[in-house]
Amino acid sequence: MQVWNQFKNADGVWDEDGIDNFFKELGVNSETDIVAILASKYMNAASMGEYSEQEFMNGCESLGVSNLKEWHAVALPRLRKELDNPEEFLALYKYLHGFAAEKGFKNVDVDTAIALWELMLSKNCKFINEWFAFLKSDKSELQVITKDTWEMFYDLTD
Fold this sequence. Notes:
By secondary structure, the protein is mainly α. It has helices at 2-7, 16-25, 34-43, 53-63, 68-82, 86-100, 110-121, 128-136, 147-157; strands at 108-109, 144-145. Helix content is 63%, strand content 3%. It starts with a helix and ends with a helix.
């Protein structure tokens, strides 16, 4: 597929640069726009910063697109609309923990979790800054965020 070949690296995968360039083509900032994470969920991407060709093809098939024009005209509006659906947003939030964990690990480091919580929940969580301050303080012994902690925190913000 032409889109895949346009952004793959010498190892035949999309690394952070390839992913970033793909989303830039679509007018999406992959670091600050949740739609990039939702697209990764459709790909069933295993981890942040790398897409395999199979993952990308899965996403294209799931979204019914095959080129950049269709990604822009079909996939992006659909993904943006889905973000307004509370059930879809929760499913994305749950997916994100595994996606954000380093390869071979089950948990997410605190700094990564804070960045993702800021992106996903800062508009709806009134106490998020206090939570971040606690996590960064000497009082917190947390070095990683488990899946249980990740999901329970969402329940507190709901």
